[in-house]
TrEMBL record, chains A, B:
This is Phosphoribosylformylglycinamidine synthase subunit PurS. InterPro entries: PurS, PurS-like_sf. NCBIfam families: phosphoribosylformylglycinamidine synthase subunit PurS (TIGR00302), PRK05974.1 (NF004630). SUPFAM superfamilies: PurS-like.
Length: 87, 87
């Protein structure tokens, strides 16, 4: 079964307080030269479908349930086992 | 400046209540055939470095501040402008 990764962020025009907080804290921890920090959700899920049907189901799940299309945007991709964030 | 995406999940052996809740809700919304749902953090940030120095800074930031290495694991990658989750 394909494993899908979905990355969700607030839309660019919307203030991201979490991202702003991280961005402001990093220099104090010795990390300069870091900017444009955005913080959002990362989901991984296995979906029992392939090709266009997989794409259609992922897009519908994202639009209906996994994201708030009014304030969030997302990208998704099929990932290999070695790309799992909990590998 | 390179834009980096960091995906953080709870380690596989740790219960993921959010992922479990999403997994249980999906069939009720008409989405069957979805399993192994994991929910975590997605960060995007621009880092003023290249090559090995970029890799070293990202790894240190993740270990020191962006993740909790005791319970979380992560992956990171450089992304193009078209791969931004808030594109």
């Amino acid at each position: 079964m394909p494993r899908v990764a979905v990355d969700v962020l607030l839309k660019r025009e919307i203030l991201d307080p979490q991202g702003r907080a991280v961005e402001r804290a990093l220099p104090g921890l010795g990390y300069d030269g870091v900017s444009e920090v955005r913080v959002g959700k990362h989901l991984e899920l296995e979906v029992d479908a392939e090709g266009d049907e997989l794409a259609d189901r992922v897009r519908r799940m994202c639009a209906d349930f996994l994201t708030n299309p009014v304030i969030e945007s997302y990208t998704w991709r099929v990932i290999g086992d070695d790309e799992r964030a909990d590998a």
